[in-house]
């Protein structure tokens, strides 16, 4: 029995040491991440301000498609949009939506969204949640996947529900309400 216990101890020690395999540095552990830390669910609610007009636009067109483009297909925007607690731009700033979105469909109103929600308030200050997915922006409620995160939101996964709060057809400015559900450690 003592021999088995000694073997088990050596196995655990060896399995948690750093090893080099064919030039790749790695760490192996018998304990799963979920055994070390409990998974949490965090619900976030904020407003996304996509401002194209005025002195300080927060979204800029960076790619203009050729004239023969169907429905603006290929139009690409770079964004650094404020995320606020309420629908008014003057509401408390809780973060920034930074990234790219583009018209990715020739047949309907589908955008490709590649955004990081970078939070600047409270316990989430410095943390991010990443979205990578399709946004059919003319639908009443859109669901997009959360594919990662940093700091508080390490190993994040989940979904974001977006609902247009207001939109100006003249300027393209929009306020979008987001309800985000994030699973993380």
- Low-confidence parts: 3-21
How many individual domains?
1
Strand content: over 45%
Q: Summarize the helix and strand pattern as letters.
A: HEEHEEEEEEEEE
Q: Write down the overall geometry.
A: globular
Task: Write a structural description.
With about 180 residues, the protein is mainly beta. The chain has a single domain (about 35-185), classed as Allene oxide cyclase-like (AOC barrel-like, Beta Barrel). The chain has two helices and eleven strands, in the order αββαβββββββββ. Strands 3-5-6-7-8-9-10-11 form an eight-stranded antiparallel barrel. A two-stranded antiparallel ribbon has the order 1-2. The model is unreliable at about 5-20 (pLDDT under 50).
Quick synopsis:
Helices cover 10% and strands 51% of the residues. By secondary structure, it is mainly beta.
Record the SSE blueprint:
Blueprint: H1 2-15, E1 18-21, E2 24-27, H2 33-36, E3 40-50, E4 59-63, E5 76-84, E6 93-103, E7 110-119, E8 128-136, E9 141-150, E10 157-167, E11 174-184
Antiparallel strand pairs: 1-2, 3-5, 3-11, 4-5, 5-6, 6-7, 7-8, 8-9, 9-10, 10-11
GO biological process, one term: phenylpropanoid biosynthetic process
Protein name: Dirigent protein
Subunit structure: Homodimer.
Keywords:
single chain, 185 residues, mainly beta, AOC barrel-like, eight-stranded antiparallel barrel, two-stranded antiparallel sheet, 2 helices, 10% helix, disordered N terminus
